[in-house]
Amino acid sequence: MDASDLMLATLHRRPFSDPEWLYEIKYDGFRCLILKVGEHVDLLSRNGNSFNGSFPEVVEAVSRVSGDFVWDAELTVDDATGRPSFERLQRRAVTRTAKNVRAAAKADPARLYIFDALSIDGEDLRGLWLLERKERLRDSFDDTRTLIYASGVRGMGEFVFGQAQSLDLEGMVAKRLDSTYQRGRSRDWLKIKHAGYSRPAALGFGRKG
Asked: Where in the sequence numbering do the catalytic residues fall?
């Protein structure tokens, strides 16, 4: 598996509520595919670029999780209030020298919000429904300061979107509970953006989901 296997959400204009859908906060970060085989870890952007050199603390955190797996996640850096800061994330992504990377990791530690699993211990999970994949993912690791399970809320899309607005977050993603994991753009995942939210333009190292 590689970054070309990522499932992508389709833009949707308005929030909605439906008991057959799961609603997740849309974090302002870089989409990240995580591959772990044995002790080797790769963090890949949507473009297939490696994040390993710029985010060694994330690589280390993933390496401590037992087993082999492929995860789908959002890579973020928080500001002083605990909200994802795209500007700080951009600075981290273009920091390359070992000394500067260590200093940046200490000043602006990164996080992974992990929301899906494509494979666990050699078993391809992409044909399972979203709810089944989420259950398998939840059982595969414990939350830490760096690795966070993104759970979502069932059926209450307008509530979740209202929370995103009140917290000045980027928006939300709605996902059909019975959807399989499909390569490329799909209407089984819908992204609804908070129109009042703004952030700096991307530098091109990573891409949004």
From this structure: 26
Give the DSSP H or E segment for 92: helix 86-93
Per the CB < 8 A criterion, the answer to whether 141 and 169 are in contact is no
Q: Is the pLDDT of residue 142 over 60?
A: yes
Separation of alpha carbons 123 and 125, rounded Å: 6
What integer pLDDT is reported at residue 195 of this predicted model?
83
Whole-number mean pLDDT of the chain?
A: 91
Tell me the whole-structure pTM to 2 decimals. Answer: 0.90
Listed residue (186, 194, 180) closest to 10, CA to CA: 186
Instruction: Kindly provide the b/e burial profile for residues 166-193, where b requires at least 16 CB atoms within 10 angstroms of the residue's own CB.
Output: eeebbbbbbbbbebbbeeeebebbbbbe
Name the residue type at position 154.
Answer: R
The pairing of beta strand 30-37 with beta strand 69-77? antiparallel
- 49: number of Cβ within 10 Å: 17
Write out pLDDT tens, residues 28-45: 899 999 999 999 999 999
Average pLDDT over residues 120-148: 96
| CB atoms closer than 10 angstroms to residue 127 | 10
